[in-house]
Write a sequence for this structure.
């Protein structure tokens, strides 16, 4: 993907997509490709094998690929031991590395759920924790018009926008959201790029909600 230099005087945002890859990821990638912009995909480990071709395409296009656990449990519930949590994260990172050749640098906890145990495990595994500042609520409404409004009602500079590459309605919404962000002069960047441009050095075990 051809990438333009970023202009510090213009606003910036990072689109993030969780829970994939799925059949809907392809159309989101097509839209990103059409407008020559990247996003960040937080991938569920047990979907990596089946979706390896999609993940490889996303990575080769210049998108960032992050870790979203292996089975998508709430990692703050007592049902998992620290060793089981580590396995959720390590297995996913290894699976992603086997597809992209790169060990993921960012982690998003399922449901955005974080506690002290998870933070200390992420510190040990060298993973910064990336949550969001704008929830599109696509998982709840499954309606492209509402997803669009949810994003633009709360849009702000250096936003991290949460959606899921898991719904047809999200792929529909992105065909309008992405060109509209561009027409508002928003520069779309990956999470790591957003942090870099914000002067934030990502630290393992620390939660980030925006750039
Ligand atoms: Zn999720």
């Amino acid at each position: 993907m051809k990438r333009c230099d970023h202009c510090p005087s213009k606003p910036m945002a990072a689109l993030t997509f969780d829970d994939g890859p799925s059949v809907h990821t392809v159309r989101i990638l097509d839209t990103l490709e059409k407008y020559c912009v990247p996003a960040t995909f937080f991938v569920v480990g047990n979907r990596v094998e089946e979706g390896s071709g999609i993940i490889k395409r996303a990575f080769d296009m210049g998108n960032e690929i992050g870790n979203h656990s292996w089975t998508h449990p709430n990692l703050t519930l007592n049902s998992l031991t620290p060793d089981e949590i580590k396995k959720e994260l390590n297995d996913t990172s290894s699976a992603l590395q086997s597809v992209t050749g790169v060990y993921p640098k960012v982690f998003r906890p399922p449901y955005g759920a974080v506690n002290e145990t998870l933070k200390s495990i992420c510190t040990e595994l060298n993973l910064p924790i990336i949550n969001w500042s704008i929830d599109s609520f696509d998982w709840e409404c499954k309606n492209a018009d509402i997803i669009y409004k949810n994003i633009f009602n709360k849009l702000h500079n250096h936003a991290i926008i949460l959606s899921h590459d898991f719904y047809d309605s999200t792929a529909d919404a992105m065909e309008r959201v992405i060109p509209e962000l561009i027409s508002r002069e928003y520069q779309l960047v990956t999470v790591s790029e957003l942090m870099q441009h914000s002067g934030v050095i990502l630290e393992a075990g620390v939660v980030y909600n925006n750039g």
Observations:
- The radius of gyration is 16 Å.
